[in-house]
Write a structure and sequence with these properties.
two-stranded antiparallel sheet, 17 helices, alpha/beta, 437 residues, Peroxisomal Thiolase, Chain A, domain 1
């Protein structure tokens, strides 16, 4: 298995709607940025790229089958190989790992992975219905299976089991909105308070509008290369690249219906012991077994034994404020049951940003410095790749270059994690990226 590098990446503007562009030119916006950032001309890119991987979540939003084929043609990459990846909310993260696999396996020296979604073409209620098709349409969907209801049920259990509070949930939204204020790609750029979150419209108790991610139009692209491919790019451009290296990948999955998931012992991470979770009913509906498995495999591959001290930042799938808290536990940033206190401690907040609140340990391991899905946006097929682009820029130390604002730069970042999540934890991916120069 070969080393795999991320050479470049690009993100389109995420927005509630992009009436200025159809899906193909929206992808090209991200693709062109990816090439321009490393000085690749279009013809050079065509010669170097061996194949591509496409991700988008729903043919229903697009009202078009074979959208990946159409976009690959629009980018001028025919007749080179392409395939589409789809896996619910984890679509972008799965696409990232598929691009990594294509290069690690030796099939491609250079691979472009791109993802997109156009969610604005339908009303919000219809969009929620389309997303709900990623639940079991024979059992869950007929009894009101919209995801806000699922996550409300999960966080209610988390609150009962562990004492998590609505104020702790709200702090996640405060953090992510305040971070996104400094991200020009973000859909929602405004500073908010705990009171704003709790006073916004209730969707499914205790989750309000500001506890939930936004539907978006947007695209993102990542350029992968082997060492041989990296050498070819440097030769073509006459420039020394600043790549990041993919050092760990992990994924997990679970039964679609939570009622079908068996209870058992907690999957332990290297820094944990069995006695930490004595008596915990696991996974219950408060935790994601697939997220724990994905984390364990990615950490093992990357040699991580103490995640909170060996990872400098995390971009994770915060479809709901509650799911960010759950995922911090799954990834071992804190113990199961301590996610609410982890947020309240300030550990996942950017170190030097004023959020309007004082925290005892602000800035230990920034989580979603981009603003996450809640504020940056969630065009599903692009989301996991967007996380990878922002992680790449963090590790390069080039946030100021791309954002025009250095506020969200994690200082001296050497290793980051990205995390994608589908359904109620049906598919989860975790990938580790490190500074590669």
């Amino acid at each position: 298995m070969r080393d795999v590098f991320v050479v470049s990446g690009g993100v389109s503007k995420f927005a509630k709607a992009r009436p200025d562009k159809t899906f193909q030119p929206m992808v090209k916006e991200a693709y062109d940025y990816t090439l321009k950032d490393v000085g690749l001309e279009f013809k050079q890119a065509y010669e170097l790229i061996d194949g591509s991987v496409t991700s988008y979540f729903s043919d229903h939003f697009l009202r078009q089958l074979m959208g990946g084929a159409m976009t690959t043609d629009y980018l001028g990459l025919c007749p080179k190989p392409n395939k589409r990846i789809e896996g619910g909310g984890a679509t972008g993260g799965l696409c990232f790992q598929a691009g990594w696999e294509a290069v690690a396996s030796g099939r491609f020296d250079v691979c472009i992975a791109y993802g997109f979604e156009t969610m604005s073409h339908v009303n919000t209620w219809k969009g929620n219905e389309f997303i709900a098709l990623a639940s079991d349409v024979s059992f869950d969907y007929p009894v009101g299976g919209f995801y806000s209801g699922y996550y409300a049920m999960m966080v209610t259990r988390h609150m009962k089991e562990f004492g998590t509070t609505v104020e702790q949930l709200a702090l996640v939204s405060v953090k992510n909105h305040n971070n996104a204020f400094h991200n020009p790609y973000a859909q929602k750029r405004r500073k908010i308070t705990i009171e704003d979150v709790r006073n916004s419209e209730m969707v499914a108790w205790p989750l309000t509008m500001l506890d939930i991610c936004v539907m978006s139009d947007g695209a993102a692209a990542i350029l992968f290369a082997s060492q041989e491919g990296l050498n070819k790019i440097e030769k073509a451009t006459g420039k020394r690249m600043k790549p990041t290296k993919v050092t760990g990948v992990g994924s997990g999955m679970d039964a679609m219906r939570m009622a079908d998931r068996p209870h058992g012992e907690v999957i332990l991470l290297p820094h944990e012991k069995k006695s930490d979770y004595k008596g915990l009913k696991y996974p219950g509906v408060h935790s994601f077994r697939s997220g724990r498995m994905a984390s364990k495999l990615a950490y093992k591959m990357a040699g991580i034994t103490d995640p909170i001290n060996q990872i400098d930042f995390v971009e994770l799938h915060d479809a709901y404020t509650s799911s960010e808290i759950q995922t911090c536990e799954d990834m071992g940033l804190c113990k199961y049951g301590e996610g609410g206190d982890f947020v309240a401690s300030g550990k996942p907040f950017m170190p030097n940003l004023d959020y309007g609140y004082k925290f005892p340990k602000q800035g230990v391991i920034p989580v979603n410095p981009s603003g996450g899905l809640i504020a940056c946006g969630h065009p599903v097929g692009a989301t996991g790749l967007m996380q990878a682009v922002f992680a790449h820029w963090q590790l390069q130390g080039t946030i100021n270059k791309h954002f025009g604002d250095p506020t969200l730069q994690v200082k001296n970042a050497k290793r980051g994690a990205i995390h994608s999540h589908a359904g109620t934890g049906t598919y989860v991916t975790v990938s580790i990226m490190e500074k590669g120069f």
